[in-house]
Specification:
The protein is 41% helix and 23% strand. It has 14 helices and 20 strands. The strands form 4 sheets. Strands 8-4-1-2-3-14 form a 6-stranded mixed beta sheet. Strands 16-19-20-18-15-17 form a 6-stranded antiparallel beta sheet, covered by helices on one side. α5 crosses α10, α6 packs across α7 and α6 packs antiparallel against α8. The longest helix has 48 residues. The protein is flat. The chain starts with 6 loop residues before the first strand and ends in a 5-residue tail after the last strand.
Length: 565
């Protein structure tokens, strides 16, 4: 008997491994197995360097499910992967790959040659000006550390990102729109704002382990004991004694998490004005914390409920899942991975190296190739022995193919010439894209500056500048009025005018030019006020001089600020 085809998703988290198996029943799916196994604390801490213990655990779990060898879709802990949503300007489809590669070099927080990265173009509205893309990446050193011990355990068909796999589960049978999903894991919390095919996801570095660490430090006990206290007690109304301390520890961390969630929802609302959030759905291991639903609903002000992972998936009568007891909410990502194994996923990001994907594709096609080659040889023998006149027909076809190849070469040369003419236009499109990406920054920065302008001040110019090492060109080369009092800062910036071509320095520095009826101390006070604003990282008075009539003080102030993304 041939081994059964298993559709498996393996979610490797920061503290546990979840494996889900689906099977096809006609056009529908059934969930057969769902197993979870804890990762020992000391091995979880050393996870990114050594996945050998993980491979052993997965091997035992698969044997328990009755699976000797199979392929699987896998996700690694969220803290090991990188994902970001980016928007691209209107561009020809043939150039999207180039632009995304450029974006990957800018967005991924590691050298691009040290990671494996992939992207997925998300569906856009017909009249959308921009194309939205989700970019994902994984360091090669972590990938190698994972794949090596997994060779004899399971064939990794694809490596997915947890947040995107969770979206695949949610979108399998859409629950409606305007829903915020909060998947609380051990090391990270995944926030997913769902509006159908339009969605947004973000990983928050606050989750179950942070709560346990807070209890551990408050109670001065071990991590394992603190974890058990968290599970046994959860959120209560106790204010004194051991229960009160545990309750305060949990509340402190959850309030920080709620603040991050509210800030993220606020950001998404600012980008998608029409969104209406109707409910919050909590999943992940953190959804099992006693009292957490009421706490989130009270603090966010939106109806909140625990996820029901079996709501839209049938349970196999031959499996190990009790439908009455339900499925632990920690299996959400694993379900999304298993759906992808069946071919029911909307997103298909793959962080396996391309050479691995190609090698496995060749192996899968080898059997088909040999069968096709045998039939081909048999056909040739029949043609050779019985139908000699087809030789002439084959020669005719060969001549036709050569003619087509010749025409294709001419078309290729014509296309090359057209692409060379398009290069200047593409360069201009790149400049427009830079402007689009930063279209709101000027207004935001100007509003921030004008907030601090005294009544007797006014601005004449607001200009971006670019500091260049080794250059001594001053920001202000205007003649000074002779005999007038002049005040300058110790460090005088060097630079030149703003250039669209230098993306790296865009909106990093600017200068303010203005006038005041006050004196030089007023200019210094204005500079100090700007410097106290956390929005700016450096503020310097470049020059402050009286005008030729001695009635006004003309000043130039140099300002720097950090990354606004």
């Amino acid at each position: 008997m041939l081994p059964r085809r298993a559709y498996i998703g393996i979610d490797i988290g920061a503290s546990s491994i979840k494996i889900v198996e689906f099977k096809k029943v006609g056009k529908d799916l059934e969930i057969v197995h769902a197993h979870q196994s804890e990762i020992p604390r000391e091995e979880a801490i050393n996870l990114q360097k050594d996945f050998s213990p993980i491979a052993v655990i997965i091997r035992h779990m698969l044997l328990k499910m009755g699976i000797e060898k199979s392929s699987a879709i896998v996700s690694l802990p969220n803290q090991f992967t990188f994902s970001r949503f980016i928007k691209l300007p209107p561009v020809m489809s043939s150039k999207i790959g180039q632009i995304i590669e450029y974006e990957a070099q800018q967005q991924v927080p590691f050298p691009i040659d040290s990671v494996v990265w992939d992207y997925q173009i998300l569906e856009q509205q017909t009249l959308a000006i921009e194309t939205e893309v989700v970019l994902s990446a994984l360091e090669k050193r972590i990938l190698k550390s994972f794949l090596t011990p997994m060779t004899n355990v399971v064939e990794v068909e694809a490596i997915d990102v947890g947040g995107l796999a969770f979206y695949n589960y949610v979108h399998y049978k859409p629950p409606g729109k305007g829903i915020v999903f909060i998947d609380i894991g051990a090391a990270t919390t995944t926030l997913l704002v769902y509006e159908g095919k339009k969605f947004w996801s973000r990983n928050l570095p606050l989750a179950g382990n942070e709560i346990t660490e807070t209890i551990k430090n408050e109670m001065r006990i071990g991590f394992k004991e603190a974890e058990q206290m968290k599970i046994d007690q959860g959120l209560t109304e106790e204010e004194s004694g051991t229960s009160g301390k545990v309750n305060r520890s949990i509340t402190i961390t959850l309030q920080r998490l709620i603040a991050e969630i509210q800030r993220s929802i606020g950001y998404y609302r600012s980008q998608s004005k029409e969104v209406v959030i109707e409910k919050v759905v909590v999943s992940g291991g953190g959804a099992n914390l006693k009292g957490i639903m009421a706490f989130i609903e009270k603090n966010i002000g939106i109806p909140t409920q625990k996820i029901d992972l079996l709501e839209n998936i049938s349970v196999s009568p031959k499996g190990t899942i009790n439908k009455t007891e339900g499925l632990d909410p920690a299996f959400g990502i694993a379900c999304g991975l298993a759906l992808r194994a069946v071919g029911k996923a909307e997103l298909n990001t793959n962080l396996l190296p391309q050479e691995v994907i190609q090698t496995r594709g060749i192996k899968k096609r080898q059997g088909h190739f040999y069968a096709a080659a045998g039939l081909f040889c048999l056909s040739l023998a029949v043609i050779y022995l019985g139908i000699s006149f087809q030789t002439t027909q084959l020669e005719t076809k060969t001549n036709q193919i050569e003619l087509i190849v010749s025409e294709c070469e001419e078309c290729y040369q014509l296309r090359t010439g057209i692409e060379e003419k398009l290069d200047p236009l593409e360069s201009r499109l790149e400049e427009v894209r830079v402007l689009l990406n930063h279209k709101h920054d000027w207004l935001n920065t100007l509003a921030r500056v004008t907030r601090h302008i005294p009544n007797n001040f006014w601005l004449d110019e607001f200009i971006p500048v670019q500091r260049m090492k080794g250059e001594a060109e001053a920001l202000d080369q205007r003649p000074r009025a002779r005999g007038r009092r002049q005040a300058e800062s110790r460090g005088r910036p060097e630079g030149k005018g703003f250039s669209l071509g230098d993306r790296a320095m865009f909106f990093k520095q600017f200068q303010i030019r203005g006038k005041t009826k006050g004196d030089f101390s007023d200019v210094e006070d204005f500079k100090n006020t700007l410097a106290q604003d956390s929005y700016f990282t450096k503020v310097e008075v470049v020059v402050a001089v009286q005008d030729s009539l001695g009635e006004l003080i003309e000043f130039t102030i140099y300002v720097e600020f950090g990354d606004l993304s």
